[in-house]
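Morning - glycyl-adenosine-5'-phosphate inputs below, output right after.
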Amino acid sequence: MAAPNIETIVSLAKRRGFVFPSSEVYGGLGSAWDYGPLGVELCNNVKQSWWRWIVYDRDDIEGVDSSIILNRLVWKYSGHEATFNDWLIDCRKCKARFRADKISDNKCPSCGASDWTEARPFNTMLQTKLGAVADDDPTALAYLRPETAQGIFINFLNVQTTMRRKLPFGIAQVGKSFRNEVTPGNFILRTREFEQMEMEYFVSPTAEHSKLVDYWVEQYLEWFGSLGISRENLFLYEVPEGDLAHYSKRTVDVMYRYFPEREKPWEELMGIAWRTDFDLSTHSKNKVDAEGKRINPDSTEDLSYFDEPTKQRFYPHVIEPAVGVNRTVLAVLMDAFSEKTNDKGETRVILKLSPQLAPIKAAILPLAKNKPEIVGMAKAIKRSLQPVLRAVYDDTGGIGKLYARQDEIGTPFCVTVDHQSLEDEAVTVRDRDTWEQERVKVADLAEHLQKRLKPFPVTQPETI
Ligand code: GAP
């Protein structure tokens, strides 16, 4: 079972402290969201899981963390200044403004009229000004990055030479990106400020690029599986040639069923693109066009690569898996949502988060909060577990309420300390998904929980 719609998750997320509407005390800010105490843990766990999987578990990928604000020339030569546009149209009747590609039946979604202005481009890079300058000084213009990828390309040589890398190898980065979206919405699915996890995999121009796209698609399907996202809620979309970005020769989008209640349930979760040698060539000082003219007279570096075995110099091609943190978090929450009826016929929400992603791994609950010995023992257990896993102590309600709250936020284990614990030095461990309970010695508790929390292993193929 998954969530029936995004609204179910919006309400759970607010009620339980995952995600709040931003700037609420001033009436909010359209499509901006703040991550609460549990949301920040969930996001961090997604990012950590990705980093471990893509950087630590493999031997062919390095990490970087580049600036959000880069030299404006990066965006000139990447093509974003000229082409990172949405096409806008206005309804002449009600003056509402829309993205042209989102109007499918030629009718205005606000008033139903079909009288449109001509479509015109709107650049979606968010602008800012650097330094103490006059408002109209064009040299101060800078952009908040619309993708993390360019910070990787301009560091290609730095990473390759300092880490003594040979092709094929990749560079990964996770961080914020910004787009002045015309129609943001659907909770954290489309916002103007969001986070990306991108990896640029550099290969020879003669590599089998299409096969490598397929390889990364398979890898990501496995990774999503390890996060608890069911394969049947994912769909692969081969982007048609006419819709490819200016740098891409092939892109496969991994779509998630964000709208199960709709006729068209799919929306993009990530894209895997063969970006050709576009990016490294465009930022290079030596690359020339068909007439022998330098395509980038502003660059001071040549980002080409010398291949020792073939004694050839070339611009590497790139396979890029690009995934959003926020869209992954939303898919994870939707897939983890389930309901279960207890003995009394009451329906309870259980968030079946993969243990590696759960914000809290174990909640330590005293059965009697007016018994100092039990409270003391429960608090001591919490402290002893904390160095190995995220644990909390909670005595703010009766045991039934406490269990229900932990189920709803996805805590895999509740550890209950009772009168018997004072005598036998053992506690009850309750499983979130089965509600089964077992008695475990306090001395064995950390090891017992750690074993059961072990992340699902993602298999790595030997070679690429
Ligand atoms: N470097 C390639 C690139 O940025 P993209 O398809 O534009 O490709 C990659 O973005 C991923 O970033 C998307 O699949 C999505 O998960 C996430 N993303 C893009 N725009 C977003 C937005 N406005 N809000 C939330 N996530 C977004």
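Note: The pocket of glycyl-adenosine-5'-phosphate is lined by residues 147, 149, 179, 181, 190-191, 194, 196, 198, 268-271, 320, 322-324, 326-327 (CB under 6 Å).

O.
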